[in-house]
Amino acid sequence: MCFGMIEIRWHGRGGQGAVTATELLAKAAIKQGLYAQAFAMFGPERRGSPVVAFNRIDKEPIEVRSHVYEPDVIIVLDPLIIKIIDVTAGLKPKGTLIINSKSSPKELSELFPNFRIAVVDATSIALQRLNVPITNTVMLGAFAKAKSVVDISNIEKVVLERFDQLNVEALREAFDKTIVLEV
Amino acid sequence: MQIIEPLTLSGNLAIAYAVKQLDVDVVAAYPITPQTTMVEKISEYISKGELKANLLLVESEHSAISACLSAAASGARVFTSSSSQGLLLMHEILFITSALRFPVVMAIANRAVSAPINIWNDHGDIMPQRDTGWIQLFVESAQEAYDKVIQAYRIAEDDKVRLPIMINIDGIVLSHTYEPVYPISDSDVASFSPWNLYSPRLDPDNPITIGAFCYPDYYFETRYQSLKALNDSLPIISNVDKEFGELSGRSYGIVSPFKCDDADIILISMGSISMTVRAAVKKLREKGEKVGMLSLKLFRPFPSKELIRYIKNAKAIGIIDRAFSPGAVAGPVFTEVTSALYLSKMDIPSVDFFLGLGGRDVKMEDIKDIFNILKRIVKTGLIERHSYYIGLRG
After folding, report:
1. Which of A12, A141, B4, B334 is deepest in the core (most CB within 10 A)?
2. Cα torsion for A58, A64, A68, A69, to the nearest 10°?
3. Has residue A70 been placed in a domain?
4. How many CA atoms lie within 13 A of B318 on its CB side?
5. How far is A26 from A14, CA to CA, in rounded Å?
């Protein structure tokens, strides 16, 4: 595995677990022997309002403490949020956009040209497997498929420590079902 | 030393973990963002029986610090934490804690003060506590926060120190960022910072008075003793850090210079921002620019001599201030540094840079802008202004 520092921005809504997802991803990366940060733009968030959270992952110790302005990866937990927020703002050219959506990769690539698109219907998986429309753990599976940075086995371990086997199965299903469309 | 796998912890949780390992007896606190998750975690440790301590959830921060002071007077190892308005409400009791020489340890998730209300990071809450007589440490990471809490009890309870300590972690930026933290084992913590509390303490069988009334004939001498204790604590703070390095491989210094030896320009900073400054210095060094930086880890007692050693050959010095001292000659950190320079008979052009107030993000570019201003001063020999407000609109 060869990469420089990877910066990730998560978009979700209060209650969907974006902040927890960043924490779990950092944990999985650190378990793998990498360095990682997980942080969020904290404010007086309310359930349902848009939230943003970040990860940095690197092989070397991370020396930056500012916000992420030009992410390599964007992960969108909520299918409707793309209508109200410019989710690809600052995304590096040919960067990866991982979306929870029922739309096809082709439809999404028309909306977001020049980016690598990874898509999975995470809400349906979450409803079916977890009985709640909370997609954070599910989207960790999509991330593992879209970017070979953190092994899915490490993600599964931290999700199991924090939640349960159902969440592990949900993220595994998302891993299998995520379709990646290269630029 | 036992090798332990890294944990993924936020600054707040790293501190809570250290507090658990330190087997603290009494924790008294009142919740305030961004400190809250620290005490929530401690509360969880206590409820699970992992820490045997009395958790006093009091009605205000004034009561929290008063409870800590009193518990310390009875010989307990105590911990508290606060932020912003909460810390301001403690202000009165902070003087008393240090003057009575109680080794209270407090973690502060630094946050802006009102008005307007703002929950994000700057040093507006800690600067008004400069003269309270506490030892004041600043850290750059969750790891350092963890390490410093362990060191803090060793320092505070040292028979030659017996003073309270504040560990400052930048709110949100450190308190809520998860990153790798390598803990040391419980037994290493216990042997590095063994419980060392002794009389005078409150004891029902041997009643004494603590903090009694004092006439003009002794007040001066009593206050001087606290002052002297604080000044004399500096080498002990430094040695504890070195010893901790021998144990854990991690030592930070009371000042942490980077590329200062041959630097024409040196930027001085405190807290988490120092990491971004260091990264900027690395980038500029790659381009051949003779720049350096120094992170102040200790603010009280102020490490004048140690600081001067590293900055004395600079041609220009920048000082970052993350709080105002309204109406003063300059910002709080600038005033300290330039006083230290003056007393060492050094006349090095120095400029104060205010930035990152109320959580305004500090980018690498902001730091590069600062170095450009300092470069111009070295080149022209002219100081246009003594203070800059980086990123201020309007």
Report:
1. A141
2. -120
3. yes
4. 32
5. 20
Full strand arrangement of the beta sheet holding B265-269: B255-258, B291-296, B265-269, B316-321, B350-354, B387-389
Residue A15 inside a domain? The answer is: yes
Rounded to an integer, what is the distance from CA A140 to the centroid of its chain? 6
Interface test with A, best of B8, B121, B174 (most A CBs within 10 A): B8
A156 found inside a domain: yes
Q: Please, are residues A52 and A68 in contact by the beta-carbon 8 Å criterion? A: no
Tell me the whole-structure pTM to 2 decimals.
Answer: 0.96
B167: three-class secondary structure by DSSP: strand
How far are the Cα atoms of B81, B143, B186, B224 from residue B148, in angstroms, in the given order?
14, 9, 15, 27
- Higher-confidence residue of B3 and A63: namely A63
User: What is the span of the domain harbouring residue A169?
Assistant: 6-181
Q: Which of B177, B278, B362 shows the shortest C-beta gap to A38?
A: B177
In this model, does residue A3 exceed pLDDT 80?
A: no
CB A13 within 8 A of CB A161: no
Query: What does DSSP assign to residue B59?
Result: S
Over residues B32-81, the pLDDT tens digits come to 999 999 999 999 999 999 999 999 999 999 999 999 999 999 999 999 99
Kindly state the average pLDDT of the residues B326-347: 97
- Give A-chain residues touching B361 at CB under 8 angstroms: 66-67
Q: Does B295 touch chain A (CB under 8 A)?
A: no
The pLDDT of residue B200 is 59
Domain at A167, CATH number: 3.40.920.10
Based on the structure, what is the number of domains in chain A?
Answer: 1
B57 phi-psi bin (left φ>0, alpha ψ -120 to 50, beta other): beta
Q: Supply the pLDDT for residue B382.
A: 95
Q: What is the structure's pLDDT at A48?
A: 83
**Domains in chain B: ranges and CATH:** 7-248 (3.40.50.970), 255-389 (3.40.50.920)
Chain segment B251-298, per-residue pLDDT in tens:
999 999 999 999 999 999 999 999 999 999 999 999 999 999 999 999
pLDDT of residue B276: 94
Q: Which two tokens stand for residue B186?
A: 């419980």
Cα nearest neighbour of A65 on chain B: B276
Task: Check: CB of residue B327 under 8 Å from CB of residue B128.
Answer: no
Question: CB-CB: which of B6, B177, B279 is closest to A63?
Answer: B279
Cβ-proximal residues to B100 (8 Å cutoff; 6+ apart), any chain: B69, B73, B210, B211
Residue B173 above 70 pLDDT?
A: yes
More reliable by pLDDT, B212 or B134: B134
Domain-located, residue A64: yes
CB B316 within 8 A of CB B374: yes
B275 close contact with A: CB closer than 8 A:
yes
Percentage of chain B lying above the pLDDT 70 cut: 98
Strands of the sheet with B26-29, listed across from one edge: B54-57, B26-29, B78-82, B105-110, B165-170, B135-138, B298-300
| C-alpha A27, offset from chain centre | 14
Contact B110, B125 (CB under 8 A): yes
